[in-house]
Amino acid sequence: MSDLAPLVVRIAVPSPLRRVFDYLVPEHVLKDNPEAKAEVGCRVLVTFGRREMTGLIVGTGTTSEFDINKLKPVGRLLDCSPLLPESLRADRQHAHNRLCLLAANSSYRRYDRRNCTSPSQRCQ
Considering the entire predicted model, what is its pTM? Predict the structure, then answer.
């Protein structure tokens, strides 16, 4: 096991819950595909409930408000570069809003600002 801090990613998934979810990026996932990136704007495959879903990374870090040992792992990194241009990723709040909207719209559900959660997790 490495002495490095764990990589925690915040994922927006197409679900009726208008919030993001924290996942861990295990070392083996990074080693399995060294070209893939765990950066804001990249897609990942995650287990969400009982289903595997494609989600978008909207934030990265080494901590979570939840117990690190209870976070689910990312199944696979899908992109070698972020889907969004650098200019859009530079403004983190704007990028977060857009990525949440993209995830919400990909499920073909109507986006409703009233269903957003706390300001740190809100989509708009």
Answer: 0.69
